[in-house]
Amino acid sequence: MASSCQADDESTYGSDVSNESDSAEPSDEEDNEEDDEEDVLPCKFYNKGNCRDGERCAYLHVCKYALKGNCRYGSKCRLNHTVSQGVPSSASGRTPDWSSSSHDQRLTDGRCYQWQLNNGRGWKDVENDHILEAQYSLPHTKSIKIYNTSYGAVSIDFKRMKVLGKKLRVRRLDDGNTAWIWYCMLGRRWIKYGAKDSKGVSTPVKSSDIEEKFQRNPTSSFTFNINGETLELKFKEMQQVSKNRKRKVTRRPTYRQPQAVGGVALASSGFQNLSLGTKPQWEFEGDSGKWHKFKHRKRTSTDCSVTSDDIESKYQQNNKGTMLFTVAGQSYNLDFGAMIQTNVRTNHTRRVRRVLV
User: Which residues form the C3H1-type zinc fingers (predicted)?
Assistant: First the structure.
């Protein structure tokens, strides 16, 4: 049976996948035009600020971007971010009840996150959505392709949160407790803000500092200084700007292991016959672009001090941390957040990945 899932451009589960270049994110106006053409659950007039039906409206009075998990305004948004708020009685039977307690407002049903698809007939949970979440948490993964679904092969663009080539919609719901990590593109590699370099020196700004400012105002910017140079991280453009250079930045969630929720059944109409592995395996990218499993290779020129299982054990202790190991006597630092290994002496980097086999 063909494999069920593959990600661009790091982790693959199956046959070849075509690389997709980065593209500009659509404007709010483009998203509005798209929603106007589909039978969507959120009220388009409420989202524009002028629904005349009020409580009699047959659609949900909730921020459509919050339902997708990508509202740029966050807690500053003027629209409802929980389905339990502003849900008219006529719409109560059309969608699951993602209620929120007085202490912890959320959009999920209690899980850390929920990935869902909609073919125009309502939202359905994606089975094994921890696969999507694991790939989404990697800054270099642009998209993922899932096979063996009732819709055929489904390609999801993580950057724009869109299904490519099909009349399907995708969204990621969040429980509000996700730790978000910020990365900057340096030398064609995604580097985590606050990560230590080969000399053990970290940048003066951390992801948590950036995220705090982003949550206060997602349309503003974050300014900091490095070696006397002023840098500005523009949230709306997702760029780090200095006097002479612009760099891409991205924001991805810290991966959390899925937890079972009592009494919650996942809808399976969209995804069937998944043939995914369950054992994590750590690999590094060779000079030819081929991926190799971490193992000892004793009495060879590539003798490694750690195995894939050793790395997985360290990863489970702290999936945002780092670990040191040696290959043929040379020291390397493996950064779980950036998914790269760095030669401590030469600063040469290689990509690493975690796949299920």
Answer: 37-64
| Residue corresponding to tokens 């007085």 | 102
Query: Domain total for the chain?
Result: 3
Please count the residues of the chain: 357
284 and 142 part of one domain:
no
Token representation of residue 7: 């990600």
Looking at residue 4, its amino acid is S
Contacts of residue 92, defined as CB under 8 A and 6 or more positions apart, other chains included, come to none
CATH number at residue 244: 3.30.720.50
DSSP state of 42: B
pLDDT in tens, 36-82: 333 346 888 888 888 887 766 767 788 888 777 678 887 778 888 76
Pairwise CA distance, residues 48 & 44, whole Å:
6
Residue 97 lies in a domain: yes
| Cβ atoms of 340 and 189 closer than 8 Å | yes
Say yes or no: 20 and 167 in one domain: yes
Distance, CA of 114 to chain centre: 12
Task: Please give the model's pTM, rounded to 2 decimal places.
Answer: 0.51
List, for residues 196-247, the tens digit of each pLDDT value: 766 677 778 899 999 999 888 888 999 999 888 999 999 989 999 998 899 9
Structural domain including 233 reads 180-253
Q: Facing residues of 233 across strands?
A: 222, 240
Is the same domain home to 202 and 158? no
pLDDT, tens only, 255-266: 887 765 444 434
